[in-house]
Amino acid sequence: MLTGLTLLQVALLLVAGVLLDYLLGEARRWHPLVGFGKLATLIESRLNRGRMRFARGAAAWALAVLPLTALSFSLPWLAVHAVLLYFCLGLRSLRDHNLPIASALEQGDLANARLLTARIVSRDTADANDADLAKASAESLLENGNDAVFGTLFWFAVAGGPGALLFRLANTLDAMWGYRNARFLQFGCMAARIDDVLNFIPARLTALSYVLLADDRKRAWRCWRSQSPAWPSPNAGPVMASGAGALGLALGGSATYDGIAEMRPPLGEGSPANPGDIRRAWRLVETATMLWLGVAGAVALIGSLSDA
After folding, report:
1. How confident is the model at residue 3 (pLDDT cuts 50, 70, 90)?
2. At CB < 8 A and 24+ separation, what contacts does 39-43 make?
């Protein structure tokens, strides 16, 4: 451990962080990541101009992420690790943002379902039908199972609270700056590449978790191996393809962004998503989280026995 934590401490702190997330949910006011987003916006407004946009983007990333991460390494108390993990996790947030979409669709409240879905995805939802909204929510749950949960847990296991913080700050900057458009193509390139590197192992462990928990593991594995290479993101592809295969859903395909319809590669096999599948996707993410905690506990137990 880079922070000197024992395996048992890591396992206990992982459980503590997840429990805090379950009990408290997302902070309604003064959330550190919201404050970080405002800081990142300020830095980008000052540096994303003129020439040498790539170098300026790299400097902006370092200025936004490294001081805060270095500061977190200087905090010695065990409780700080659990608090940092809590602020970096988004497990309950996934439930709180997605299950209301399922409820709205089940009640026939299409207008509210569109509004709720628009809060969690960047695609257009104004004219989306029930199936479009269920697909968008299920895809968001599967992908963010890695970005908001498993990636954070992985980097906490590697480097404690500072590792979780580094991952979430880098992931936030990728979400803010990692666009392939005129404004961010060069400036956000470093943020996108660093996020790809940090997510490489967690994304594949997430995909493996979805495979292990699938009713049809062969199907989930087949979808992962055959479909993920076609997906634009090297890390979202394995996660979403294996998750769709695990659920027996046909995801991907058509989606509208800024009024332009895009045909994305297929994900999974089976039937189109319905409101009940949003709940199934949430249960898959939740169960995979429990699986990770169980593995951490088993590793800690084996380590304790070997040291005895």
Report:
1. low
2. 39/64, 40/64, 40/172, 40/173, 40/176, 40/177, 41/176
Bridge partner list, 249: 271
Q: How far, in Å, CA of 66 to CA of 299, rounded? A: 30
Is residue 111 within a helix (H) or strand (E), and if so which, with residue range?
helix 110-118
Cα torsion 134, 139, 142, 144 to 10°: value is -110
1 has pLDDT over 60: no
DSSP string, 136-153: HHHHHHHHHIIIIIIHHH
0.70 exceeded by pTM = yes
Tokens standing for 142?
Answer: 């599967």
Provide DSSP, 166-203: HHHHHHHHHHHH---STTTTTTTHHHHHHHHHHHHHHH
Res 2 pLDDT > 60 = no
Q: What angle do CA 104, 106, 119 make, to 5 degrees?
A: 30
Cα separation values, 286 from 59, 210, 281, Å? 37, 11, 9
pLDDT digits (tens, 9 = 90+) for 77-98: 787 888 999 999 999 999 999 9
> Over the chain, what is the mean pLDDT?
92
**In this predicted model, which residue has the larger pLDDT, 181 or 86?**
86
**Rounded Cα gap, residues 204 and 238, in angstroms:** 7
Question: What is the token pair recorded at 209?
Answer: 């978790």
Which tokens in the block code for residue 84? 């940092």
CA distance 10 to 296: 8
308 has pLDDT over 70: no
Domain ranges of the chain: 7-307
